């Protein structure tokens, strides 16, 4: 039983992958609520300029002008969820609650809530990136998704858009991300995962004014532990029952 939703770390273990007696399950859905809350905590920190005001509070300074005068509301903006799985679905429902227009991608066919305007396939990614103000990466790390967000994808994004990565660091080309931030093409980045990870102390992403970094903690929370143990217990019961 993987205790994470992603299983990329196990796919290189030949003895595990090749042994048909071993049934491997993951934690799909267990961490979705906490991670989705974390996504919007980070997004709102940039959208509402909260980091600037938190710093001014430490200085006891009443600074109403903000850092750049560009605070914005989420209502009416377009959210793109790349990977409409267990976590992506939780992100999408919160975006809808904020009054956002919601787009998504996923590999499989299936029904989706009527308030998600469109669910495309992975090959539609570049087209959908052009429309999004906020892009949230919820895909697993696979050969197909490594460097999914490269220079070409970043160039396709709407100028000023914000990129959020709670998937895996290798889904994003770090050098291309830095270049997009430095050029001003990308409005900001919220990163709970990085490549490399941990991020070296001298890495320029740490001090970039439009980047918010947390150390791979989006899933943390009391609710996550309860949901993970419940899923583990149920999977064990099902395995025992055949």
- Overall average residue pLDDT: 94
Low-pLDDT stretches: none
In N-to-C order, the SSE pattern is HHHEHEEHEHEHEEH
User: What is the rounded Rg?
Assistant: 19 Å
How many angstroms separate the termini? 16 Å
Shape: globular
Beta-strand content estimate: 5-15%
Q: How helix-rich are the residues, as a percent range?
A: 25-40%
- According to DSSP, the number of beta strands is 7
Largest sheet geometry: 7 strands, parallel
- Helix-and-strand structural type: alpha/beta
Widest sheet: strand order? 3-2-1-4-5-6-7
How many DSSP H or I helices? Answer: 8
List the helices and strands and how they pair.
Elements: H1 14-17, H2 32-47, H3 50-58, E1 78-82, H4 86-97, E2 101-105, E3 116-120, H5 125-129, E4 134-137, H6 151-156, E5 162-165, H7 174-183, E6 188-191, E7 211-213, H8 222-240
Parallel strand pairs: 1-2, 1-4, 2-3, 4-5, 5-6, 6-7
Helix pairs in contact: 2-4
């Amino acid at each position: 039983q993987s205790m994470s939703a992603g299983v990329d770390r196990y796919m290189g273990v030949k003895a595990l992958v090749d042994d048909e007696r071993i049934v491997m399950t993951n934690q799909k859905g267990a961490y979705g609520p906490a991670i989705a809350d974390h996504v919007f905590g980070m997004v709102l920190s940039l959208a509402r300029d909260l980091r600037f005001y938190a710093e001014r509070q430490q200085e006891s300074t009443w600074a109403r002008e903000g850092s750049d005068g560009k605070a914005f509301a989420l209502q009416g903006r377009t959210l793109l969820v790349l990977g409409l799985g267990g976590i992506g679905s939780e992100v999408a429902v919160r975006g809808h609650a904020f009054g956002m227009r919601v787009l998504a991608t996923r590999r499989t066919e299936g029904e989706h809530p009527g308030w998600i305007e469109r669910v495309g396939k992975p090959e539609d990614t570049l087209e959908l990136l052009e429309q999004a103000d906020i892009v949230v990466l919820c895909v697993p790390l696979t050969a197909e998704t490594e460097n999914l967000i490269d220079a070409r994808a970043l160039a396709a994004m709407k100028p000023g858009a914000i990129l959020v990565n709670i998937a895996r660091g290798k889904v994003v080309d770090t050098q291309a991300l830095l270049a997009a931030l430095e050029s001003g093409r990308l409005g900001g980045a919220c990163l709970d995962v990085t490549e490399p990870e941990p991020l070296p102390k001298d890495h320029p992403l740490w001090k970039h004014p439009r980047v918010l970094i947390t150390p791979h903690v989006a899933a943390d929370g009391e609710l996550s532990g309860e949901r993970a143990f419940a899923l583990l217990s149920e999977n064990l019961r099902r395995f025992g029952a055949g």
